[in-house]
Specification:
Length: 628
């Protein structure tokens, strides 16, 4: 975001949303692009996509179309029948004019009119079938593609999402697949019928009068040249539209999610300037595509008119029947209709291919960013957890964990303590394989976690985080966490926590609606739902990540009473900032700057007088009342 100018009355130093999420807010060198635009490109702009071939992208779409190919093939077949009917129509008119109108044969004229009407009605009925089948097939294929992308996102490692704005990923599932859907909605796949009709019209026109046909098609080459020039530039314009759409969605998602920060730090004007820059860029990209489309349509209309005029002029130099001239005029109109349609569909094809590039670019992530790992040899199955010489870096060259090693016996309770940023939560993330270790091995019940399917690994853990995320739905659905909720089991879990009374008093009880992010529940109630989730899953290993850090004292008392029940017969890893919550642990691991510096029981560590003892003294000194 740009900083205020000297004429503004606001303080010269302002906190931006970008700075809060880690985008460098240092001054940027002067250049043709504005400061805001440079920051936006740094954070939102996607890596340049290599030029893709339409045939390759279309081939990758085929597995999604194949299950619905009957609908597509029916549409193509019907389209060919419609094209044949349209080619026959001018011949019917020619015969009716030459043999009926000019010779005053009313029966022939009436027959010609009736046949013409029947052909028009047939084409209308078949056009409905053609449009309906191709669009239904396309809609089903794109629904399958969206499902594939959505499922794919759930299997990507968390590291991938650390560098991806949410709006960009939303664009992949929505806008980019919608752009591909336009191939079907616009009838672009019926281009085969258009080409067939063009070839048929040319053959018929040359069979009627080849000299007049040569005159009529004299202006054809400029159309081919124009389409060649426009298609190259249109492809780049649509690529830019797809990129700007992703940037706009990403910025909107960020601004809505960070609205409290924006308003608290008076960033409304800066946010508006930022969005305006993106909006203008998106508008300009659309205007460029509109310009190419308009130029193409206008040129085709001009060439069509020139061809028709050339026929009229040629009549002054050579004789032709009135029916032939009338048929030629109809054929010329029919000839340029599919050309114009093909040009418009090609424009949509460019948009679809730009969307397909980005969709398949996302689906190719695993090939380059998530290489498979080979599991190590089996370890001691009597150990619930074994962490052996683990190192980890979020960013290359910046170690977060250094040579971490520890074991946890079945049923043992260990605690990870340390200052903020010491690596406690990172260790828990590695246990769940939300991230892969940079070096070292982690085993669960003697098995290297890289040898597990991720779902199978995470089924061994119940996790109670500090910041609880609730999904829209019901209380019971959130406690079941993806499983079909058993209301009696949900009630039992809450009853064990001593929290059932808090939820049954709500309207609809355990079926009470949960709004987005659980905003209609207090922090304490959300935390109780997280504890109930852990009980509901009943996994052998429990991870408590600052589980009582954000609750009030009365709720914490409820949780403490239920904690022993939750920990009974389970292996537990407790991450805590409040040292008072870890004194019950069988062993405490003290982390500092990403390394384990001490371990032992609470009493042993206090007696040692080391880092833990200093943390303990500092913690309770802060809680002591201060004299006024």
């Amino acid at each position: 975001m740009s900083t205020p100018t000297k004429t503004q009355t606001r303080p010269p130093t302002r906190m931006s949303v970008r700075s809060l999420i880690g985008v460098d807010d240092a001054p940027i060198r002067k250049g043709p692009a504005s400061r805001t635009e440079q920051i936006l490109k740094k954070f939102h702009e996607e890596a340049s996509l290599s030029k893709a071939y339409d045939a390759r992208l279309l081939a990758r779409l085929w597995p999604f179309v194949a299950p619905h190919r009957v609908l597509v093939l029916v549409s193509l077949a019907v389209g060919l029948v419609v094209s044949v009917s349209q080619i026959i129509r001018p011949l019917v008119v020619k015969h009716a004019v030459d043999q009926g109108a000019l010779l005053k044969d009313s029966a022939t004229l009436a027959q010609g009119g009736l046949l013409f009407a029947l052909l028009v009605l047939l084409e209308a009925a078949l056009s409905f079938v053609q449009t309906y089948t191709v669009q239904v097939g396309g809609a089903r294929a794109m629904a399958d593609l969206r499902r594939e992308i959505f499922a794919f996102l759930h299997h990507l490692p968390v590291r991938f999402f650390d560098s991806q704005p949410v709006g960009r990923l939303v664009t992949r599932v929505t806008n980019d697949t919608d752009a591909i859907l336009e191939l079907f909605a616009s009838g672009a796949l019926n281009a085969f019928a258009d080409v067939f009709r063009l070839v048929g019209i040319v053959i018929v026109m040359f069979s009627l009068d080849y000299k007049l046909s040569l005159v009529a098609f004299a202006a054809g080459p400029p159309v081919a040249l124009l389409v060649t020039v426009v298609r190259r530039r249109a492809r780049e314009a649509f690529r830019e539209i797809r990129a700007k759409t992703a940037r706009m969605n990403a910025t909107m998602g960020e601004q809505v999610a960070g609205m409290t920060v924006v308003q608290t730090y008076r960033q409304e004007e800066a946010a508006s300037r930022e969005f305006d820059a993106i909006n203008v860029a998106y508008r300009d990209a659309n205007m460029r595509s509109i310009k190419y489309d308009a130029v193409q349509d206008a040129a085709i209309e001009l060439v069509s008119a020139a061809c028709l005029a050339s026929i009229v002029v040629s009549l002054g130099y050579r004789g032709s029947t009135f029916g032939t001239v009338f048929a030629f005029a109809m054929y010329l109109r029919q000839f340029f209709e599919p050309i114009s349609a093909l040009a418009q569909r090609y424009t949509l094809l460019q948009s679809a291919m730009a969307g397909a590039e980005r969709v398949f670019g996302l689906l190719d992530v695993t090939d380059q960013d998530c290489p498979p790992r080979t599991a190590g040899p089996a370890g001691d199955p009597t150990l619930a957890l074994a962490v052996d010489d683990v190192n980890f870096e979020y960013k290359a060259g910046t170690p977060v964990l250094k040579n971490i090693s520890f074991t946890v016996r079945k049923g043992e309770r260990i605690a990870l303590v340390g200052a903020t940023g010491s690596g406690k939560s990172t260790t828990a993330s590695l246990l769940l394989r939300l991230y892969d270790t940079t070096q070292g091995t982690i085993r669960v019940f003697g098995r290297d976690i890289t040898g597990f399917q991720r779902d199978a690994l995470r089924s061994q853990f119940s996790v109670v985080p500090q910041d609880v995320f609730l999904f829209p739905g019901t209380v019971a659905e959130n406690i079941a966490a993806g499983q079909t909720p058993d209301v009696s089991k949900v009630a039992a879990a809450l009853e064990q926590l001593g929290a059932l009374d808090l939820f049954v008093v709500r309207p609809d009880g355990l079926n009470a609606r949960v709004e987005e992010r659980g905003q209609n529940f207090s922090a304490g109630e959300r935390q109780l739902i997280a504890f109930a989730r852990a009980l509901y899953r009943d996994a052998p290993i429990l991870i408590l990540d600052e589980a009582t850090a954000s609750v009030d004292s009365s709720t914490e008392a409820r949780l403490q009473r239920a904690l022993e029940l939750l920990l009974k017969d389970r292996t537990a890893v407790v991450i805590a900032h409040r040292l008072s919550t870890v004194q019950f642990a069988d062993r405490i691991l003290v982390l500092h700057n990403g390394a384990i510096v001490e371990q032992g029981t609470h009493a042993e560590l206090l007696q040692a007088g080391g880092y833990y003892a200093r943390l303990h003294a500092l913690h309770f000194a802060k809680q002591a009342p201060h004299a006024e």
